[in-house]
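Deliverable D4.2, example record:
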Amino acid sequence: MSKTAAIFTIGANLDDREDMLYFLRRLTHEVDRLVVVTGHKGTSETLTRRLDPVGSARIEVIGFNGAIHSVFGGYQSGLAHLGEAAHALDALIMTGNHAIGLIDPEEGALRRLALGVAGVWAPYWTNPQLEPRLLSRPGFDRAPSPDLLILGKDALGHSGLLAELARLRPARDFWDEYNQCTLPLAKYLDQNAIPLEFPFEAAELETVSPALFEIDTIVRPGATVMPRALLFLDPLLHDLNAIKLRDALDRLEGINPQLCTLVTRFCLRQLPARDFCAITDQYEVLPSQAAQPDKAAWAFGAVAVFIHAFYAEMMPEFWERICHLPCKAHLFISTATDEDLTAIESFLDAQGWPADLRTVRKVHVNRGRDMSSLFITFRDIALSGEFEVALRLHSKRTPQVSRRVGESFKEHLFDNLVESAGYVSNLLDQFEAHPDVGLVIPPVVHIGFATLGHSWHNNRRPLQELARDMGIKLQLDPFTPVTAYGTMFWFRIPALARMFEWNWLWDDYNREPFHIDGGLAHVQERLIGLCVQDAGYRTVSVMSTRQAARNYAKLEYKLQMLAGHMPTGNVLMQRDHLRRTSLGLKHRLRLRLERLYGRVLQRFPGVHGVLRPTARIVRKLLS
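Output generated by the structure prediction step:
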């Protein structure tokens, strides 16, 4: 009877690592013996509790045995633990939490693969011939990736391979370990004619590190693992190397939906939302014509449409958008006065909208505008469990800017959310096809607004304090958080459950007309995206084709103009140049004064009109 074993190294604790536990559970069914190498206390008890009841393998949890806590350090500790028993195995699998797997969902697939290996097998390679950092070139062009190594029966029986693995010099730094472990191992295999096997032909992968730069090719049916390091690669490096992580995740979703969901959830917990959206292309340009023109019902049922009609005279404009809904919908409309409530009811009667498919309420106090009218006035509806998917609209005027800019902003919101019946049908298809989509928003508005890189304004500190109170422990985006600017959006109600469950009070909001940055309503606007992310749901930005063209044209012009003033066209060098420039005394002084100005307004909103002229003069002097 064949004997197989696996060594699994853990370089992090088990908190929020469901994808790693998934990998371990899969391994327990693939091998006869599983050695887990970890340096974290409590891992043994956790694994015994969470894996033993479902696994068939004997799990042995050990420490790093004095070796450096690294990939090869873990492999050395595991091999030392196995001792002479390793030579008697038919196959030994070495991997760890530095990899994401198993991609192939078929039980037994890895075991069959391992038993078919004679020498050494790896899922992909690095090409040292293309590595610019190497001073001298080795005599081979494929070094096996340590993300997953399979040692077959012949390799395990080789007189010196296991001894060579024990002689390698692990390092905490990836590049040092590459030079001291990966390359020496590849050299040993080459010099001793030990077969090195890959699931790809040499011509299929063209870059120095295919697992990073050609991940869309690596992830395919039958694949074993993908590198976790790819998820933490700088978004600018994703750009410079044209990495197609979105394509890889789409393929993973088709091959192994459960693993894809776990990977996405891990990313949402570990990465700032803007980084995640950038590296995984969380943007969709939806056509106006429906993919399924005759479709009138979706699996999630009727849609809840929450509308705050502070300006009741906008009801005809709302009606135009309501008519674009291709599905059954219930209208939940809030307004500020009894007169407007009566006018809204009369308008809906005139349009023939059924009374049993609408609920019109007057807000308790005219504070908090569209935020309080959603999260307080209709809290009971959201938490009733009757609806899963909802749309949020309101009568937006944006009085702090010119009428034309305000209208442009409103068009940006309405057109990207409810452009046409066919457009909305395609948008609802996204919710139906992807249960992890929690928030669908227009992209951040930038035409007419100075939002790019500066949309926190005075809201970052109060949001941090509020998020702490709510138990949210996510990284914040440094410049422009991913959220529903203008507070019109589609959402999956469970994704925003935290917002509806929190005990907001009417007195928490600024009195009118002191609706300022740093006040609760503006903080909530930025909190929306964070709550969706914390709940494990994705935020997707959507655009109509017309709005996408308009926004891209203006955005490209602005970026071309800014980049043209840089000393280089390389975006990484541009970033370094800007960071050096921002260290100037005048820049630091301006930032501190702006923060002080924001804190004063948060505490004394009524002085806004008095301080604004002075703030403008100071800003001009320090620009």
